Amino acid sequence: MTIDFYWRLPTHGCHSSIRYGAYDRGDWSPLAAGNIAPGIDASGADDGFRYIDHLAEIARAAEGAGFTGGLIPSFPNTDDPWVISPLLARATRTFRFMIAFQPGFLNPVHAARLSASLQRATGGRTIFNIITGGGGPAQTWWGDSFSHDDRYGRTTEFLDVFKGVWTQKDFSYRGRFYEVEHGGLAPLLAHEDIPEIWFSGSSDAALQSAAKHADYYLSWLEPFDQLADKFARVKERTAALGGEQKCAVRVDLVARPTEEEAWRDIRIGFEHVGEERRRHGRGGPTDSVGAARQQALRPSEAKRYEDLIVAPNLWGGFNLLRGGPALGIVGSYEQCAARLDDLIARGANAFILAGTPHLEEAWRVGEEVLPLLGRNRDLLLAAAE
Ligand SMILES: Cc1cc2nc3c(=O)[nH]c(=O)nc-3n(C[C@H](O)[C@H](O)[C@H](O)COP(=O)(O)O)c2cc1C
């Protein structure tokens, strides 16, 4: 059984430490001494190093540390993954680029041609994280006021058309959102592999769309039994349609030589979070079922970091320390590897891992945690027999 490991590329800047909140890598915060990409030189001027150069370093580190590729997230405040990916492809050899995008914002035929060109240029290193949006102001920011379930209806049709023009010579389609007459990519482009489709979303509408189109169903980390149930439901739905669904988990790790060191970093990080943010966390109003499931993991009044420990090595306060999901794994290298093995035993076929700072942690997790995987899995399987 091959388990693929991806790393996350932070397209909205990065912190130099999980202990402090400052985005001191990138230019999303005002530049100060010690900032990286861009930084300031001895005379106080911008040193000419761009954030894309830093992302390239992370991609190269992750590639060297054994990761298959990287997730490139897409939010209103990030750089654009379609632009970042081909730039990074030139800086790496085998690293695959998981472009996150909301299908509704692109014409599916144009997206197919764009992707086929990318496949040609990168030797087939393009994959997708299909996201459908969390509603609220982040959605209207894009000029999109469709309801939650209509957005998923549109995603499904987008993928029907995207795959249709790629695989059929004379493709016509008449849907609610898209119509195509006598479509089909040029043979040279259609010859490329369709990018693997990873699919995120926790609602019923998401699961239904994923069952039809996803190669991998992708979830944030949730308590393990809850996640195992979710994976089982997705796998069942896809099986009912005659397919086989692989599942993947996107999770942050704080992996240190000892468990005490890992929790010390979390404690210091938590102590730097202001009262207001501890109460409300990060993130605005949303109709996202996935975001609601993450919020539900976190008590509203956490006075100590220990109040947010939801299970051994699982901490529910990551969204206080940086944007993104609440739950992540904290522990020694061996414990982190053991938790990943637990997830594999519960149906995970692949992972997107992340750590702060993304550059140094790519090396650390690649060197210290990934080689320990499998040992625990063998023990788990033996115990189950
Ligand atoms: C692993 C993962 C990664 C995601 N990445 C993004 C992203 O980069 N940009 C975004 O706008 N939404 C992202 N999302 C949000 C989902 O795609 C989806 O829009 C949201 O969960 C609402 O759908 P739901 O109600 O089905 O959960 C991500 C979700 C997951 C689980």
UniProtKB/TrEMBL annotation:
Signal peptide: none annotated. Residues 50-348 form the Luciferase-like domain. InterPro entries: Luciferase-like_dom, Luciferase-like_sf, SsuD_RutA_monooxygenase. GO terms for molecular function: alkanesulfonate monooxygenase activity. GO terms for biological process: alkanesulfonate catabolic process. Keywords: Flavoprotein, FMN, Monooxygenase, Oxidoreductase. Gene3D superfamilies: Luciferase-like domain (3.20.20.30). This is LLM class flavin-dependent oxidoreductase.
